[in-house]
Amino acid sequence: MADGIGAIEGVRQRNLARVLRIVHLEGPLSRAALTEATGLNRSTIGDLVSELAAAHLVEERAPDPSRRVGRPSPVVSADSHVVAIAINPEVDALTIAAVGLDRAIPARARLELNHLLAPDETAALVADQIEQWRRSPLAGTRIVATGVAVPGLVRASDGLVRNAPHLRWTDAAIRDLLEQATGLPTVVGNDASMGAHAEHLFGAAQGIDDIVYLNGGASGIGGGLVIDGRPVLGAGGYAGEFGQNRPGIAAAADRRAGNGVLEDEVSRVRLLAALGLTNADEPTLAAALRASTAPDVVEEVARQRRILTTALTNAVNVLNPSVIVLGGFLAMIAEQDLDGLTEAVRSQAMFANAEALAIRSAALAEDRLLIGAAEAAFGELLRDPVPAAA
């Protein structure tokens, strides 16, 4: 008898998770649409939605009054008062955002820095920002967890940052530090892997099963992979470090870094230097590149595009993705002529591997890493939204 009750409870919990995940991923849906999406009957959907609403995880509102045909069906959406804190430490700034379960971003801060962040300083700054936001604009919200997108190697088993070379973090227990400072559960991952996940769920690769994602940030170039619809992390969680590959450079005149790796040649720092800037957030850098016609800037962009083309070609030949998504400054240099970059990659790649290839800019733009970090933070809630003991 107990086994039967346990089985029923397990089904209920899986269905609660299923409904919550659907409205989180798809946005507001009517009960009728949820019934169709899940294959459950209308009564069961009503019970599940009521339970999620009682737990303050979803909200219901009256149907569109313009709808005049058939029985009205209430609209269900993720509760906007449930948020995760997304964190992205970089060499030039610490970015923190509150991301809602409804995917809104009600609060964001970019703390520009003139020094490298230490892990304990990061935790203290995040805790202070959260306390400020709890007074306003996050008063009345439920903060479920924090997610950290780190530009470096993160051990999947426990979130230990094994090496974030540009931050100079080695074996940094940032998860433990943040949990102690904030009192919130914390999930830590590689920034590019989180960006890839976000673009797969909500962005330029939504609905695509085979993706290569490259992120260009202040700390260099990282990557994320989705193969057959599943994130590929590698044995320890370190897969996707495209920036550490040795670049193929056909013209000796294009080489700037001796025997450097890809991120030494295709570099945000070099773009800023060509523009005469010392620092810039992504929108500012993108606007400066679009506006500049200076010969040094034009040539530097062209040089980096040539080297990036070969790097992307190697990825295509090895992984045969449907889509390559580029984020950060890589998207900026690609957008100078996205069709031209795609054709250049196709011309260097094996024909069969590249014949259906698309190269796209990250649709989530500067939010991609934050949304990816928040998605990791929401993971436990989405798996078990209303625990049996609650």
TrEMBL record:
SUPFAM superfamilies per the UniProt record, alphabetical: Actin-like ATPase domain (SSF53067), Winged helix' DNA-binding domain (SSF46785)
- UniProt xrefs under InterPro entries: ATPase_NBD, ROK, WH-like_DNA-bd_sf, WH_DNA-bd_sf
Name one matching Pfam family: ROK
Recorded superkingdom: Bacteria
Q: Which family does it belong to?
A: Belongs to the ROK (NagC/XylR) family.
- Name of the protein: ROK family transcriptional regulator
Species: Microbacterium ulmi
